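G., the chain you wanted modeled:
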Amino acid sequence: MNTEEFVKAFYTEKQDFLKEYLSENSETEVRQLIKYLSLTDQKTEIMKKVLDLSFTDVFYSILLGLDGSASIGGIQETYDLKDENGNQLSGEIEGYAYDYFQKKLDNIIMNEQPRPTETQIELIKKLDNLKFDIWNSKTTEEIIEIANKAIAFSKNVEPTTYILANGIAKIDDKGKSLIMEVLKSDIQDLESRSYSTIEDEKFATVSSIQMLIGVFVHLTGDEMFKMLRK
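Predicted structure as tokens:
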């Protein structure tokens, strides 16, 4: 085995994990938990992206750690890694790891928009208020009306901007479009009375609106609280 084959094996393992966790026939505990969420097709796509990016971070970090280019558990050392035949593996892992785990992701995010615009802040406040309105709703029709308001409020507001690894600034239009579709799907489910209880309806819609907020701002809970209370 050479270094590239070693790194490629990690990449293959990552892809196998992703495939297994998303397979309808999988009996892993993770897959069973995902099934329990009863995700729509749009939300399943979001889950796939979450898992994909998470696995990429984990495997890439481990490979860099083995090559001495990053720390593992807060400890950074240089390791002499060889296969059972004595072939040297460490020393060139970092380059191949980048090719397999990062170069394949042209849209890897390096930096985020540091602060939301005034328009984004006003929208976030409106969406946050809508979440409270949903929890106070008495009927499915009220929830549908509020969900449609969230879509209307968000329609013409520009989402957050990312700085990609290649230095290009990219507006997250794809993320916005995806979450808007999720919310529209929720409305369809509400109209067809797909949920067992009104509490389930509220939880699903509030969750989607919270994801929609995340399209326009990336702040910690404390930062969000301070911004909303200004």
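The chain has a mean pLDDT of 84.

Shout if anything looks off.
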